[in-house]
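Why does residue order matter? Because the sequence determines the fold. Keep that principle in mind as you read this record.
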Amino acid sequence: VQGLYQGGLITILIYNFLVYLTLRDWRYLLYSAYCLSMCAAMIAANGYGRLFLWPEWAVFDRISQNVFFSLAGASGVAFSAAFLILESRSPPLYRILRVLSLMQLAFALLFVVAGSLTWGISPIIRAHLIASVITVGVIVYAGLRLMRLRIADIRFFLLSWGVLAAGVVVAVLHAFGLLPSNPLTA
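Structure:
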């Protein structure tokens, strides 16, 4: 199952990167960066990174999942803003998403610094989870605003981000101990 998931992400990554090379539309490059970061985060989460990619880097392994999820957040937010064409459709929401994308990059850097100095990263993880819920909420809100303007294909965007938002909320509730630990919440 892990191989199918990773293979699917890698396939989407390669496809979107090839579309970027063909069309030179940077939204496809942003989406490719999102897929690459998510794939790396999942490899780190299931332990394959430690086994096959960075077996000698114990310090990096401790923070790798968080770093890659932060990078996925940054690229996912940037992709969303570009896909929704918020710079011209809603400049205030565009500026908010730019700040949220930079905040995700700052979390990635903070995880690297905290990991290299052997700080406890638990408070940073909790802050990142809360920031991620806010970020996904703002993206869904932006999509809903554009849906009211009857922008084509927003329904598909909202469906995909809605599923991701549900996953983020479950992950946060699980991390804070508000949901029991079982295969569904994990």
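Residues 67 and 108 are 5 Å apart (CA to CA).
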